[in-house]
Amino acid sequence: MLSHSKEATTNLPPATDSAPPVAAPNGTPTTPTSPTRDPAQEVPDTHNGGSGPGLQVRDLSAWYGERKAIENVSLDIDPHHVTAIIGPSGCGKSTMIRCLNRMHEVVRTARADGHVSLNGQNIYAAEMDPVRVRRVIGMVFQKPNPFPMMTIFENVVAGLRLQGGYRARELEQIAERALVQAALWDEVKDVWKKASGVSLSGGQQQRLCIARTLAVQPAVVLMDEPCSALDPIATYRIEELITELKRDYTIAIVTHNMQQASRVSDYTAFMLAEADRIGRLVEFGPTSKIFTNPSERRTEDYITGRFG
Ligand SMILES: Nc1ncnc2c1ncn2[C@@H]1O[C@H](COP(=O)(O)OP(=O)(O)OP(=O)(O)O)[C@@H](O)[C@H]1O
Ligand SMILES: [Mg+2]
Question: What is the pTM for the complete model shown?
Answer without folding.
Answer: 0.85
